[in-house]
Amino acid sequence: MFKFLFSKRDEGINCKRKIFGISITTKPNRLKLKQLDEKIEKLKKENTILNNLVSSCSYQNLTKDYISNLDSTKPFVSVIITVYNLGRRYLVQCLESVINQSLKNIEIILVNDYSPLEEDDKVCTEYANKDKRIKYIKNDSNFGAGKSRMVGLSISKGYAISFIDGDDFLSLNLYEISFYEMIKNNVDIVCYSYNMFNVDDMTFRNSNIERIPYTTIYGEYVLEFYSSRNNPLDMGLWTKLYKKELLEKLNYNDILDSHRGEDVSYNFKIFLHAKSLVYIPLNLYFYTYNRDTSITNSSIKNDKYFTDIKDVFIDIKDYLIKNNFESYVLYLNGLFSHFFIDLYEVALYMNRLNKTYHYLELLSDIVNEFIENKIIDRNILLQYVKSLTDKIGIIEWYNKNIKG
């Protein structure tokens, strides 16, 4: 009875009371107002990080001048997103960052790779129903990320192609900036940088990749740039915008499947055929890490973390020989030098966790096999590794265990 006569509760910044069944809303509580102001300021800051706006020029106005001669009846960019075991939280975050891009003339292709999560299908269907730019495909079995991307590529209509992992998200002007740079410079590939988003503590940090200034490259230097030991690019597909006609030079089966590092093999083949690129030193992509169900987190716990990279480099060499590009095998020394340092650190870590298995021995077997099959050169790789790290332990281990 008393509860009916007088009750009080907070809703947001307002205090609501009921007296004899009549609702009365009082003035906002000052403490609540202060808390709201703090939330708004926090959102403003986060929005600035997300948008990553370029203050030096207005891409929106510049883009109009360059796209006026393009066929606007077809999408400028086809965004291909693979979906597998993501869940609503990550998938919604990704899709919201795509559908709200400042460049509106895009198509969004969702490829559900037979995800075991019913929630993935529900989110994809929900967004496909509310945005006509979205095409939703469900694989009838688990194809793997590589083949799923090819499924999306096969139905894409865009002038340019972007591949996204479904647990990552984008700066809201990524495609406006990158597509403008592609058209203005008439290049095959536009590359950009990224921030890393830690799921555990919800924080952002810059990628560890060393920045270089805005750069335009033409000719065979494109592949050399990608393969360099000082490569400033991430080796994945997701930090690049590609002309679709460039990707059409490759076959459906030219991408490895269900391998860590499959992007590296496919990207090397893409850069092999590319004649031009632009690098933009802006963090336009947000890479999510520390997600328990990610492929990288699961593969790091077993041999696959090492053997996948082995398969990637064997695949690249086989492709070069098959297509009469054997002289480019030397580029694999610079490319592998980055992986070698990472694999060595992981092997040390894994050996500490499991003393009954010697991951460093597995790594030495792989490197020695590469040398024997002339995929890499022992001395050139050593020289590159020395230029990338000053950790004496790696060099000593290399000299002791890698045959020459």
Topology overview:
Layout: H1 2-5, E1 6-11, E2 14-19, E3 22-25, H2 30-51, H3 59-67, E4 77-83, H4 88-99, E5 106-112, H5 118-130, E6 134-138, H6 145-155, E7 160-165, E8 169-170, H7 174-185, E9 189-198, E10 203-206, E11 215-218, H8 221-227, E12 240-243, H9 244-247, H10 262-273, E13 276-289, H11 295-299, H12 304-322, H13 331-353, H14 359-372, H15 378-388, H16 392-401
Helix pairs in contact: 3-7, 4-5, 8-10, 8-13, 10-12, 12-13, 12-14, 13-15
Number of helices: 16
- Overall helicity: 40-55%
The overall strand count is 13
Could you tell me the strand content as a percent range?
15-25%
Can you tell me the overall shape? Answer: globular
Order of helices and strands: HEEEHHEHEHEHEEHEEEHEHHEHHHHHH
- Which stretches of 5+ consecutive residues score pLDDT under 50? 1-14, 46-58, 293-299
Q: Structural class, judged by helices and strands?
A: alpha/beta
C-alpha-based Rg, rounded? 25 Å
Distance between the termini: 90 Å
Describe the structure.
This protein is globular. Strands 4, 5, 6, 7, 8, 9, 10, 11, 12 and 13 form a 10-stranded mixed β-sheet that branches. A 3-stranded antiparallel β-sheet has the order 1-2-3. The longest helix is centred in the last third of the chain and has 23 residues, at 331-353. Helix 8 packs antiparallel against helix 10 (262-273) and helix 12 packs parallel to helix 14 (359-372). It is α/β, with parallel strands linked by helices and 404 residues long. Helix 5 (118-130) links the parallel strand 5 (106-112) and strand 6 (134-138). It has helices spanning 2-5, 30-51, 59-67, 88-99, 118-130, 145-155, 174-185, 221-227, 244-247, 262-273, 295-299, 304-322, 331-353, 359-372, 378-388, 392-401, and strands at residues 6-11, 14-19, 22-25, 77-83, 106-112, 134-138, 160-165, 169-170, 189-198, 203-206, 215-218, 240-243, 276-289. It is built from 16 helices and 13 strands.
